[in-house]
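USER:
Working in pairs, take the chain set out below, taking as long as you need, and write a paragraph about the fold.
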Amino acid sequence: MTAPLRPHPGSVAVIGSGFGGAVSALRLAEQGWSVTVLEQGRRHTDADLLAARMSLRDYLWGPELGARGFFWQRVFGHMGIIGASGVGGGSIVWGAVMLEPGDAFFDDPAWPAGTAWREELAEHYATARRMLGVTETPARALSAQDDHLLAAATAMGAQDTFGRVPAAIYYGDRPGVTTDDPFFDGAGPPRTSCRLCGGCLAGCPYGAKNSLDRNYLHLAQRAGARIQERTRVDAIVPLPDGGYALRCSDPFARGRARHRPDVLAERVVVSAGVLGTMELLLRCRDELGTLPRIGPRLGAHVRTNSEAVTGILQPPGSPSLTRGPSISTDFHPDGRTHITQNRYVGGGTLLRLSYGPLVDGEDPRARARETLRRIVRHPVTHLRTVLARDFEARFTALTVMQSGEGDLRLRWARSPVRPWRRVLRSAPGSGPAAPSYLPVANDATRAFAQASGGTPLNLTVESIAGRSFTAHVLGGAVIGPDADHGVVDERHEVFGHPGLYVADASVIPADVGVNPSLTITALAERFAARFGSPETHGGATPAPVQDDLPAGLAALARRWAVLPAPDVASLEGDWRATFVGPAVLRAVAPRGVGALGLPRWWGKRFDAHGSGINLVDDGHREHQPMTATLAPSAIDGRPVLLVTYPPDAPLPWRHVRDELRQLPDGRMLAMSAIATGPLTRGLPFVLARDGRTNVRSHRAPAAP
């Protein structure tokens, strides 16, 4: 007999280990929940991060290509995004800047009315700063790059706004000194003070940056949370008696070795970052049908933080600009724009290929033509950027962010390259488009270049491809008053799916206008503070009634593939069978089964030990005994409840396999096939409990 298909009482699965997931893991473990964190990436040691500076294979995220790193870049139809996958999520490649947004963010009408959000979040911002060890960048960490930024600010009349940024970095008294944990009364790991190497954005290999594995995640494990790396969640499936089953895989494995055991939990917190969260929830709603009640706002109100990233390359022989943290100073050229400088040690191999000449223009097509014209007319100038020696030492990136109104939509649609697959794609939103050109960004870049003697540059994904580029994508599952205006409520619970929550940047409905990691952390702290202990929740919330099954065979196969296997004991009783799929199949299948020896087939009957028999003639007669056991599927290798017939059963029944998995409403979706050769897909049917409780002893097969 298998174990009951019920989650452990008080269990929570947290999907993702970035800012939202790390906060959720610690706080929920402290409240008494049994927490499992599921992270698709690897845990990267300091040695791994140091190796990543020398090897693209160790730097890039791409397990399907053999890469084992963390950094990724994705380009959609309307935006480009960078991020990281691994234990700690985006904090691996985070610049550690900790800024609280201005009034424009809190006053944005996209927030649900009735809550004073600045006051609501004030205590949680304070907690986030303390947990992440925020301190002002010391004067000794500044160098020539900061002087150039001050000169640019002065040229733009904004020198009074220039200053050192608050950062989540351990500076200590002297560089490179290792000491016992200075933040959590010795409960944290040992730390090494910042060496001012300029490599924060490529992963700190020295233990100075306060990445999440050194605070929230470290303390969460001490509080009892488990972190399961190399575990990608492919589907979320509600369970009939409450809670959820998570279908998991190992992205670094191949074939059936990719399969990971399902994870069952009473509550699920999705914190996979905007792209990961959107991919998972959209797939479950629109393709797999396991979360059909998520509302129409899923994927809407996606924002790029109105961001642009420009660059300046100093001439050969210039002094190195790498000394310092990646980001050390900033300024505000106007009331809605924020600019920081960036050192980029460790990622220059890719970065040099991403830049071209600085070109103005509101019209994306005209700007693209002018950029290409300059590259063609001055190829040597362009090659000096692409092939520059000491590129990282001579390069400065400017990150420009605004409080804006532009938004996009993410949807689950067919791939333009592989149309047999569905992928995440972007589309225009309901408001102005996310900008790919910010005039103030180019103005600041020219001012910096003039002050430093460098060459100003634009990212070609912005200037040629016309995409908004960001490291800080927001929205897609925004907080709202109801399902018509948001995806989650103010407690971060998904409308229509009790016990399912979102706690990451997806819930933010407005551009933050500055680096958003502090705000994501504060919102996650607020979410966790309102979550409550297992005792206050009272067990798993039953799943809502499942919508109708799809009619297409391919869609049915996808739905079946992500369902969990039921336990044998749950089968006890009579089950009415119904063929599903295309209308032609539903009409022909009963005749086919009758021709094979089961005319007027009604369904199946099982006892509590897995012995069963088919029922014919409206369930009044028994025919063809069978046995149900938990076994690997012949279709995909994952667990199923396998129904087989004895070796002496008449042909073809001795070769028939019915593979059963459980739908959220308690029904069984089965794939049936004659296993005399390679089995890839079966004939689908559904078993629904009839409600009769009198299960007789199975008689010997009777004549039909």
Observations:
- Residues 693-704 have pLDDT under 50 and may be disordered.
- The radius of gyration is 29 Å.
- The first strand starts at residue 11 and ends at 15.
- The chain has two domains: 11-534, 553-689.
